[in-house]
């Protein structure tokens, strides 16, 4: 299994000329004057489009956030790398001539896709906050000489990034990194770090997966950790900068995601072909935009993946008070003078109700009046941080919580 990634990459390299040829043929076919093509031309164009798109990309898509409305003004937004390591960048969405607003670090998960999955979250937050995001780099592009990247390294990155933001910044963690975000806040509080966050918001995060376990939690506990090492960890292909680095490949993760809703994905591609054949450009573009993002995959460092499965989902170290960081215990009770907000979704089948709320009981040093919990009715996992309910019901609560603690 360890050479599956190499075999996959070889296959994609061998079939690349077919996709390139299809894209070139489609370009020339589109030069046919409008009205001159018949149904056959439409079907041919649809077939060429699907062939040219039959691959994954390992490059981060663009965030595409060029402006944001603040009050009654439209402000230009530029992306600036405020700080970077080989494994990630602290990306700043700077508003040109914008007002002074609370600085906020949005912590993106390492889950097989790029941080651009949170572009909608970023755009909403930008209305009232000075937003930074953890823009993780693809391990297949990171040379082995740069070393390992495990769960402790993730936590260290959050501490370093908050150090770059300076005092009184706020941290919002989405899903998986909630554990590292809570650990970073605890360590910085215990050390009286000047840049410890003024508030911490954990959204749909697996703080204690013993509570109402989901199918995802059940799968993580159904196999010994060695099974995950033997069956899911591969070497980065020799064609890549990160050659022979051990990773959990993005294409393997995507295969698992697609298989969970295979019928839906097949139906979507049938619909895409139909829209293309009929010349329904707008409808086709909606589907293409979704899959451009969905098929942009990122590998996970093997150490990070294995340690997350073991420490978070199998051994539950944080809620049991046994999580260590660089040889010292992680003590959430050390968190004081910090606002704590937890958010969960009623229909979340990845991180069920109660798993994120558990952070409230762990943080005994936070005064009750500085704790906020919100359970959003009618939303699943992604609805906690994207979509209408996020924009209209969850975000106003988070915005007010951050501003109260600013």
TrEMBL record:
Residues 204-404 form the PHB de-polymerase C-terminal domain. InterPro entries: AB_hydrolase_fold, PHA/PHB_synthase, PHB_depo_C, PHB_depoly_PhaZ. This is PHB de-polymerase C-terminal domain-containing protein.
